[in-house]
Design a protein that fits this description.
By secondary structure, this protein is an all-alpha fold. It has one domain. The chain contains four helices and no strands. α2 packs antiparallel against α3 and α3 packs antiparallel against α4.
Length: about 110
């Protein structure tokens, strides 16, 4: 009886499925925009010696911005995607975040 009551209360407190789907559509559009921001920043990276002292502040700022954008997109994808799509897309983002973390650790000391 307690389990049934707990499930009933949980169902009442959850937003309607249609509302969740609509929110996820908006949020996934935001995640897509965040990923696009990362792509738009790519040409801003110094192409000649990004490790030099002169380029380090710009390179590190861009890396940190990309990390924040991809981390936010990952949270949205984790919540709104399911199945293979979730595993594939979120996995790619997590790999990119790992690459960015490694670059930050190497360049931005």
């Amino acid at each position: 009886m307690r389990l049934a009551l707990a499930l009933f209360v949980l169902l009442l407190s959850a937003p309607p499925l249609a509302a969740q789907e609509a929110q996820c559509r908006r949020d996934l559009a935001r995640a897509s925009a965040l990923i696009e921001e990362v792509h738009r920043r790519a040409p801003q990276f110094p192409t000649i010696d990004p490790y030099s002292r002169a380029n380090k502040p710009l390179t590190c700022a861009l890396l940190r911005q990309n990390h924040a954008a991809l981390a936010a997109a990952s949270v949205i994808m984790d919540r709104c995607l399911t199945g293979h799509e979730r595993s594939k897309d979120r996995g790619q983002i997590l790999n990119s975040i790992g690459d960015i973390d490694a670059a930050i650790a190497e360049i931005c000391r």
